[in-house]
Structures are given as structure tokens and as C-alpha cells.
Amino acid sequence: MKTVTGLFDNYDDAADAVGELEATGVPHSNISIVANNSDDWYEANRSEAAEDAGSGAGIGAVIGGAGGLLTGLGVMAIPGVGPVVAAGWLAATAAGAVAGAVAGGAAGGIIGGLTESGVPERDAHVYAEGVRRGGTLVTAKVDDELVPNAEEILGQSRSVDLAERRRMYEADGWTGFDVNAGEYAPKDVDRDGGRAINRP
To answer: Is the pTM of this model over 0.85?
Structure first.
């Protein structure tokens, strides 16, 4: 089993990738999505299940419900990232860290969850920062025979080129995800991918 991850500037592109992963046979229990919600774009779609996920209560029941991963989206807050819409195993890790009130734990939950599943720590920091700055992270634990399909889906033209994004962050003095850096204000978040860093 391998963890395959992709960062998207646009939530709809990430949601499409989740659907494609599910269609290729990756169980929704092995997929996770974490999307920045600092501008409350998801507010209109909140449900009681989302309220439960946001409080950390019952997130296990919310995540990966019948009908696919995206039917189990919940709203929660992650220190250093801010409000997110999330579902899946990585969301459960972050929710557990928040519920446990571990200092910096939610960031450790995202970064730790990724690194423990085989994502290089250097990349995990860029993924966490990407969500903080308005992006959507999709990650899947896939069986070896599904790895090529999953890598193609999450490496598609609508996903962020991670090396390019790292260079852009570092050019501004960024050295790694910092849980104490503060949340991005909605005006600073670029949900539509206007950064022109996406692949051609």
C-alpha cells in the first residue's frame, strides 16, 4: 500500500479527483480531503453531520459515509490552518489531535499523518501550507496495483506542481509550515487557482 497525494487550488478539481479515485476502486475509507474554508464557501451546505465533525464528536460516523467520501464532509478548525472542510482518515487524525488539545497537535496530525503514511516530511509541510493558503489536499492510501492510476489522477493538469509551489513559498521566505503563523484572511486566500502555478 502506498500513499498518493495531490494539492489543488480549486475545490471542484479536488472533488473530481476524489470521484475518479473512488471510480477506480479506491475505497472511500482510504481517501481523505481537506479544503480551506476561511471564506465560509461551504457554510451554505453545512449539515448536522458537519456540525458533529466540526466539534470532533462523531467524526468516525461522518467520515466515509454511504454514498462516497464527499457525502461525509464536516467543518472543523485546525490551528495554524484555520477552518477547513474535511473528510477521511487524515481529517480523523486532525480531529483527534484537536480533541486531544495537544499543543500544535492538529498540525502534527496533518503532517504527522502524512509522514507516518510515507509522504516525505518536506512535502507534508508544503501540503499543509497549501491548505492554509486556500488549497485543497486529496490523499489516498492505495493498493500497489492501483498506484499508477491514483498517481495519474492526483498528478493531473489541474493539480499543483509541488516543486514549483515550494519554490514560490521559499522565495517569500517560507521555511516550513508553522502552526503559530496565523490563519490567512479570506482576502488572502485564492480559491480559484489564479496563482498561475498550476501545471500547463
So the answer is: no
